[in-house]
Amino acid sequence: MRxxxxxxxxxxxxxxxxxxxxxxxSAGTVTGTISVLEKDGRQANDLGDVVVWVDGVSAKARxxxxxxxAKARIVMRAKSFTPHVLAVTAGSPVEFPNDDPxxxxxxxxxxxxxxxxxxYKRPKSxxxxxxxxxxxxxxxNIHPQMxxxxxxxxxxxFAKAGADGSFRIPGVPAGQYTVKAWHERGGEGSxxxxxxxxxxxxxxxxxxxxxxxxxxxxxxxxxxxxxxxxDKY
Length: 233
Ligand SMILES: [Cu+2]
Fold this sequence. Notes:
single chain; mainly beta; Immunoglobulin-like; three-stranded mixed sheet
């Protein structure tokens, strides 16, 4: 009876806090810091674009598990996607409102998450629903400089790092997992962790961006962006 009561009391607490996540009775917090080292050994200045996740948690991915998942959005403004990096669970809708008075498009050719929202301008918005776990690279078919990344996960245990590289993922069911971190230039890194039944486990990961080479991308037809294309809109 005792474990049931404990769980029941946690459910009530979660309900009182307005949280959609029902933490299991035995759950710990994964916390830590991610570093991304650039060519000259200095720290990257966009650590807030690092996504950290706990791999292999059997808890089902539920779009409602993250309180803000239903409102996930990437705004097109001043010929740029903001935020540049977003993390959601598979099945979550992502809105792409255009805040510019000119046409933009959002498309991806990233595997199962391929999509194309066509052309629209302010105040219209488009929506895409994340399909499969993975890294989704989003571009605009008119402006080659516009890019965003959506990290799609199969469980709700993920976080974006803070500007200082710190992160915190609460409510992870106790057990042994791999924690992974991903950054656009630093790539993916991973480390094994044992999540305790209560309390925290600290971890630290360093991603190496020193070998990163910037490369261009094709438009949604798999062709090079033409200089004249942008003039049409
Ligand atoms: Cu555009």
